[in-house]
Design goal:
single chain, alpha/beta, Rossmann fold, Glucose Oxidase, domain 1, 23% strand
Length: 309
């Protein structure tokens, strides 16, 4: 894998768009998140349909067409330097084919931030636009609003990226397979990576990559199935190393650990568990598409250059 293009870092006063490409947004939480962004000296602009609800499917923030139109308009606005997702949930895949990827590419490199369901967009931006994206907190998510550590790591990544080139595990950061590995970061929410297999918006392989995976609300047998699907598809062939983030509400961690060891440790690459990115409290922002070194013994991911240019 080769590193992707790094978007420019943000400067004080930067205009950032807030969109809802997936699930519905709670207005009070959105307002609190916007206040945080303003406190960083940023100028947030909320897309028109962020607080919408789909008339038939209550798990979606508005219709597919409206969510796609919001995203496209935000990305293609020449005054906008970053697009921040309000929350995850489900729905990004449904709007993917409604986006004009040529227009998105022509708008130039910008910053995209989100995680969970936004994994589908991370993959698409890597494949279709060749851009580094940020797997990080979302504007209206409680794990962002209530955790100063997550807030500060995202703020520093956006505005002072050279200050957060060494990302340390916020959990135990224990090596399941010891060692160090260098490669290009990729990944996100495991269930979304598996759901994207064989689609035109997802990578076909990960050779030479550092796989960063996490999930929420999946029982051990379902995580087993997802990992097995990735293995059988060849998606993990040639992977250089693996960092495992949070697996919140996924049942017994003792059982989950056995699944992770059984499915991943036979690959013969460094593997570190409980790194803490994703749905956990205080999750760090992890850039996807940059060259880095994973030290499983130390529980660190060290970037070779800042996440943003």
């Amino acid at each position: 894998m080769i590193p992707l293009v790094r978007p420019p870092r943000l400067a004080p006063g930067a205009r950032v768009a807030v969109v809802a490409p997936s699930g519905p947004v709670v207005e009070e939480r959105l307002a609190a998140g916007l206040d945080l962004l303003r406190g960083w000296g940023l100028d947030p602009a909320v897309a028109p349909h962020v607080l919408d609800r789909h008339p038939d499917f209550p798990y979606l923030a508005g219709t597919d067409a409206d969510r796609a139109a919001d995203f496209q308009a935000a990305w293609c606005d020449p005054d906008v330097t970053a697009v921040l997702c309000a929350r995850g949930g489900y729905g990004a895949q449904r709007m993917m084919d409604l986006l004009d990827w040529d227009a998105l590419r022509a708008a130039g490199p910008k910053v995209l931030v989100g995680y969970s369901d936004i994994t589908a967009l991370h993959e698409a931006f890597a494949v279709r636009l060749g851009l580094v994206t940020l797997h990080g907190p979302m504007v209206s998510a409680l794990d962002f609003l209530k955790n100063s550590r997550a807030q500060e790591h995202l703020r520093a990544t956006l505005l002072e990226p050279e200050s957060v080139m060494a990302i340390r595990a916020v959990g135990a950061g224990t090596a399941l397979v010891p060692g160090r590995a260098r490669g290009v970061t990729l990944g996100g929410c495991l269930s979304l990576l598996a759901a994207g297999l064989d689609t035109p918006h997802a990578r076909s392989g990960a050779r030479g990559g550092l796989l960063m995976i996490e999930d929420i609300g999946e029982e051990a047998y379902r995580l087993d199935r997802l990992l097995t699907q990735l293995l059988r598809s060849g998606r993990l062939d040639g992977i250089a190393g693996i960092a495992l983030g949070s697996f919140k509400d996924c049942g017994s961690y003792e059982l989950l650990r056995r699944v992770l060891v059984d499915r991943l440790c036979g690959l013969g690459v460094p593997v570190v568990e409980e790194f803490g990115f994703g749905h956990g409290d205080g999750a760090p922002t992890v850039p996807l598409g940059v060259r880095a070194e994973l030290d499983a013994d130390a529980g660190t991911l060290t970037l070779e250059e800042p996440a943003l240019a």
